[in-house]
Design goal:
The chain is of the alpha+beta class. The protein has three domains: 245 residues, 2-Layer Sandwich (BirA Bifunctional Protein, domain 2); 130 residues, YbaK/aminoacyl-tRNA synthetase-associated domain (YbaK protein); 95 residues, Rossmann fold. The protein is 27% helix and 27% strand. Strands 3, 7, 8, 9, 10, 11, 12, 21 and 24 form a nine-stranded mixed beta sheet that branches. It has a five-stranded mixed beta sheet with strand order 16-14-15-17-20, covered by helices on one side. Strands 26-25-27-28-29 form a five-stranded mixed beta sheet, sandwiched between helices. Helix 2 runs antiparallel to helix 6. It is globular. The two termini are 19 Å apart. Bound molecules: adenosine-5'-triphosphate (ATP) and magnesium ion.
């Protein structure tokens, strides 16, 4: 393809609306243009990349027996009402104003289940894997970070339909391995978080993550054994302190001005591990006092799952006073004004010799014994894991806590949607059961943007051959003046194409400097620099964009060299 004939509008300046590298580079390299908040147009080179990503996805989905559908984005709202998701989605669901009863689909569980109900009647019709690569609409409140969070975006979504829990496990595992292949083939470095599949199915889910300072998720990762978990569930290898020998009775002492654990540590010389911090939450309308060791941070997600709570929030100042009799900074488990459920973090199991508030402003109490002085109703892992703590697998390595972007999600749905919509089948015994489902999503734009986040420098992108818009960039230097350069460039372009390589030939009447900059910005894997001086010696220069490595090779050997570099 001749560059003079394609629409490839590059930008020299960084557009002000773009904050992160992938967003800046996708605009600068002429891959996309923004039409509105969270709405992007793919330009031709950008769409070539998207098609390559979609093809990789399609091949891997076909390889696990997936059958490709194309479902409408326009959905009757009744179906969404039947599963309760019009409410659950809230503002994220786009409603159509001038045509009552239609919504724009943010995902397709409902529609898949609707078709399954129409045509799946027997265990003999199962299993099925149905997928599509299609446009999704979500009214994201603050679309930012370019195509990473769009209001309209492309998703591969698939759904497994099974007759048994074991069948669901198998469909889920097939997706897990297809997803690994998709990201690896695209050239993404990724990690997986979440509970892996248990033997009997259930509600396992895994997220495929890419480490990035711009990610909206936080994860703990171990670079040694590969442990990775969302911070909401991550744990580390800390263990509870041993009980101390001097088990004296409790004693109040004045602590004027001490309002935090650090005030106790610094002002009263109390070691951090002897401090028990009390936090009060209102959990499903009831007060709960939670004890954490030292400065450990309470992890709300862990608290929620430990108590199987629906709603929880920290108690407000007035509630705190009413429940404990004191203000924040002086509260504790002994002598509460109003009885409250008391739970504690695992690291405080059997603890004694502890210091805590007394529920009297300006006082604390020492020598608290968790087995003697009050009743802890249960112990749980409630703390936020921290960077530098040891991995909970036996590898002894320090955890890193990183931001990450979710590029995919696999999820054992079970029968939530099939029950709600009445999608049932008759099993071998003639009993009617709801179909057991899984749901699996991948964001196409997130693969592209995450790839750029991981593979760029100041000058531009460097694509992997698998998803590059073209494989080879031939830069014909000064071809208006040098006939021989033009001839050799054209011939090489033709030979590359004959060899099955996708070539972009920069035949524009631009200076070498402009061509070099545009080539580095677009980032095709191999640049062929065709300059008269080398050509007169029968040679041509190759540059590998990712490494910057340059080689001067015989013109006749150029194609073999390029294929070698690209490994295709
Ligand atoms: P997030 O927490 O980032 O909003 P999600 O949990 O809503 O993601 P899913 O509903 O599981 O995402 O969708 C499946 C995949 O679709 C995600 O893993 C992600 O790759 C992609 N995706 C989701 N929302 C968007 C969006 N607004 N823009 C681009 N891609 C998206
Ligand atoms: Mg979302």
């Amino acid at each position: 393809m001749k560059q003079s004939q394609i629409f490839f509008p590059t930008l020299k300046e960084v557009p002000t609306e773009a904050q992160i590298p992938s967003h800046k580079l996708m605009l600068r390299a002429g891959l996309v243009r923004q039409l509105g908040a969270g709405i992007f147009s793919y330009l031709p080179l950008g769409y070539r990349i998207a098609k390559k990503v979609m093809n990789i996805i399609r091949e891997e989905m076909d390889a696990i027996g997936g059958q490709e559908f194309h479902l409408p984005a326009l959905n009757p709202i009744e179906i969404w009402e039947q599963t309760g998701r019009v409410e659950a989605m809230g503002d994220v669901l786009f409603h159509i104003k001038n045509r009552e009863g239609l919504v724009l689909a943010p995902t397709h569980e409902e529609i898949i289940t609707f078709h399954a109900r129409q045509h799946i009647h027997s265990y003999r019709d199962l299993p099925q894997i149905w997928y599509q690569i299609q446009t999704k609409f979500r009214n994201e409140p603050r679309p930012k970070s370019g195509v990473l969070r769009g209001r309209q975006f492309t998703m591969k979504d698939s759904y497994s339909l099974d007759a048994t829990r074991e069948g669901l496990d198998a469909s889920y595992e097939k997706h897990a391995s297809a997803y690994r292949n998709i990201y690896s083939r695209s050239g993404l470095k990724f990690f997986v978080v979440g509970a892996s599949s248990g033997a009997m199915g259930g509600s396992a889910s895994q997220e495929f993550m890419v480490e990035s300072p711009y990610g909206e998720d936080t994860c703990a990762v171990c670079d040694s054994c590969g442990y990775a978990a969302n911070i909401e569930v991550a744990s580390s290898a800390l263990s509870a302190a041993e009980r101390i020998a001097d088990n004296n009775s409790t004693e109040e002492f004045a602590t004027p001005g001490a309002r935090s654990i650090n005030d106790l540590i610094n002002g009263y010389n109390i070691p951090e591990e002897r401090c028990a911090k009390s936090v009060v939450y209102i959990v499903d309308s009831k007060p709960v006092l939670i004890l954490m060791r030292g400065n450990d941070e309470l992890n709300e997600a862990k608290l929620q799952s430990a108590l199987k709570a629906v709603n929880l929030r920290p108690a407000e100042a007035a509630e705190l006073l009413e429940i404990t009799g004191a203000n924040a900074g002086s509260i504790g488990p002994v002598g509460l004004k109003t009885p409250a459920l008391i739970i504690a973090d695992n690291l405080l199991r059997d603890a004694n010799g502890m210091v805590s508030g007394t529920n009297r402003d300006g006082f604390h109490i020492r020598n608290i014994d968790f087995n003697r002085d009050f009743t802890v109703s249960s112990f749980h892992d409630l703390r936020m894991a921290r960077a530098g703590e040891q991995c909970s697998n036996d590898c002894g390595n320090a955890l890193r806590v990183v931001n990450a972007i979710e590029v995919g999600h696999i999820f054992k749905l079970g029968t939530k949607y099939s029950s709600a919509l009445g999608a049932t089948f008759l099993d071998e015994n003639g009993t009617e059961n709801p179909i057991i489902m899984g749901s699996y999503g991948i964001g196409v734009e997130r693969i592209i943007a995450c790839f750029i986040e991981q593979n760029h420098d100041d000058k531009g992108i460097f694509w992997s051959p698998a998803i590059a818009p073209y494989h080879v960039h031939i830069l014909g230097l000064n071809i208006k003046k040098s006939e021989i350069t033009r001839e050799v460039s054209e011939k090489l372009a033709q030979q590359c194409a004959e060899a099955g390589l996708e070539v972009l030939y920069d035949d524009r009447d631009e200076s070498p400097g402009v061509k070099f900059n545009d080539a580095d910005l677009l980032g095709l894997p191999v640049q062929v620099i065709a300059g008269e001086r080398n050509i007169k010696d029968g040679k041509i220069e190759l540059k590998i964009r990712a490494t910057g490595e340059r080689k001067t090779v015989e013109i006749d050997k150029a194609i073999d060299e390029i294929r070698d570099i690209l490994r295709i």
